[in-house]
Amino acid sequence: MEILSIFINILLPVLIVIGLGAILHVKFRFDLNTLAKINIYYLVPGLIFTRLYEADLAWTLFLKVLIFFITLSVSLYFVSNILTKILRLTKGQQLAFSHSSLFYNSGNYGISVNDLVFKQDTVALAVQVLVLTFQNFLVYSYGIITLQKLNKSKSNISIPYFKMPVLYAMGAGLAVNAFNVMLPQFLYISGSYIADALIGIALLTLGAQVVQLNFSKNMATVYMNVGVRLLASPLLAFIIIQFLDTDLITAQAMFIASAVPSSVNSAILAQEYDNEPEFAAQAVLISTILSAATVTVVIYLSKVIFL
Predict the structure, then answer these.
(1) Which pTM was predicted?
(2) 1-305: what fold?
(3) What is the pLDDT of residue 28?
(4) Rounded CA gap, 195 and 268, in Å?
(5) What is the distance between the alpha carbons of residues 161 and 304, in angstroms, rounded to a whole number?
(6) Of 162, 188, 229, 285, whose CB neighbour count within 10 A is largest?
(7) What are the extents of the domains in the chain?
(8) Cα(170)–Cα(162) distance, integer angstroms
(9) For residues 50 and 150, what is the distance between their CA atoms, to the nearest angstrom?
(10) Considering only CA atoms, which of 157, 114, 113, 167 is closest in space to residue 136?
């Protein structure tokens, strides 16, 4: 019954808003580029800065989340690499498989689940915000570089991450937190309005993005990739957490953060660089659908195994 309660009270609200986004997109055909830019350049930086400013953030927490994130990412990379070698995939397919495993939806999906599970607990939210920031850095550095190398444009490799406001939002948020800077009330209220708007708009955007994805061939490989993202990732996260001296809330937040579905960014990059866009889109769609069950179980387990 507790699992059913978790699904109804945490996952179902998320799925309803995603579903509304899908329905509204089918009816009105939103400009997805504009929605994506609103999330990337407005909502996410606002949330990162405001929540880091609010958080009771110790540098030990920052380092633990960073170590957790790097270790999990490296572990997922090796698991994906081994599986793609066994499956004898092409280099392009290997990269698409790896990206769909490594890049997960820590923003519009992860933030929403974290908010519902932990009821805006500042430590839990700080963990999720840090994971979101590190994810953005990974996508717009490693993700871009590997795709450019695959397309044989080594002489023209550029990293657009330093044009992304999340980097500066994180830096500013950490700075004002570390030095105990008190923001003027009008600035804090403005930031809070932006941060509070993220969940509804981000989930609507996710629904609009997912509804236009299609099923096609190579489904066995897609399901294996989804297994890595939704099952292997939280298992690896659990093992990693055992070696970190973390409190209960931090451990639970890390564990749940590892279990979310593949990021739409992986499909967007695959489309932009023409590298297995159908595979990437299917991985996002199927992992998002199946996550309704797997994330529910992970949330339940987080309350049982971390005591």
Answers:
(1) 0.89
(2) Na+/H+ antiporter like fold (1.20.1530)
(3) 94
(4) 24
(5) 38
(6) 229
(7) 1-305
(8) 12
(9) 38
(10) 167
